[in-house]
Design brief:
CATH architecture: Roll
Oligomer: single chain
Shape: globular
Distance between the termini: 15 Å
Strand order of the largest sheet: 1-2-3-4-5
Strand content: 15-25%
Number of strands: 5
């Protein structure tokens, strides 16, 4: 699950959703800003405040990472991400099996995020539009590398829905590659070839491996 491609998707996801560092908002983005975009920007401000805090010791870095991870966990709808990623397999399993799967997926996403916390500072983000469609509210952004200015920006599209007073992200499309679709292809292949227990075992094994730190 933790392929180079997935790693890039998660890094872009975090950098764009949380807009770490100096956030760049295109002039046109103000006119197109909607409630979902405003909610994301509020989360950005919270993260910026945390990351501006000095973290010189391991304990301070761990605390900072935990605070930012909590914001990410509140923003991502892991239940919906898991349901859509499993597709037709979701309805074939018990509530207990679904809960375990959602929890494993959440842990994998959060661990990958924590490993890449510093790397997301390499991007600056522009919001370009917010629109509604039949699947939810779509916020389009562009993320540009601070260190490789000649590289074209990466286009990232977020699909969100409103739960109570909070917006939750359940899919991210990076340069045309959907996080949900990417997961669905992988999960479906593993389940079809080896069964549900094999998927759960792979996820547990991944979590049991030492963090790469990359």
């Amino acid at each position: 699950m933790n392929t180079v491609h997935q790693r890039r998707l998660f890094v872009i996801l975090v950098s764009a959703v949380l807009a770490l560092g100096a956030l760049v908002i295109a002039p046109s983005a103000h006119a197109q800003t909607g409630p979902a975009t405003r909610y994301l920007r509020q989360r950005n401000d919270e993260v910026n405040t945390i990351l501006r805090r000095a973290a010189r010791t391991p304990d301070q870095r761990t605390q900072r990472s935990a605070e930012v991870t909590r914001i990410l966990s509140d923003l991502l709808d892991y239940q919906e991400l898991a349901r859509r990623s499993l597709g037709t397999h979701w309805d074939q399993h018990t509530e207990a099996e679904r809960r375990e799967f959602v929890d494993l997926l959440r842990q994998l996403v959060e661990r990958n995020y924590e490993q890449n916390l510093e790397r997301v500072l390499e991007f600056e983000v522009s919001y370009t539009s917010e629109t509604a469609d039949t699947d939810g509210t779509v916020v389009r952004t562009e993320a540009r590398s601070r260190t490789e200015r000649r590289q074209p920006p990466v286009e990232i599209t977020y699909t969100l829905h409103l739960q109570g007073n909070a917006w939750r992200v359940f899919d991210v499309v990076t340069d045309g590659v959907s996080l949900v679709r990417n997961y669905r292809n992988q999960f479906n292949r593993i389940i079809t070839e080896n069964g549900w227990p094999a998927l759960i075992t792979r996820m547990r094994d991944r979590l049991a491996q030492p963090a790469s730190g990359r």
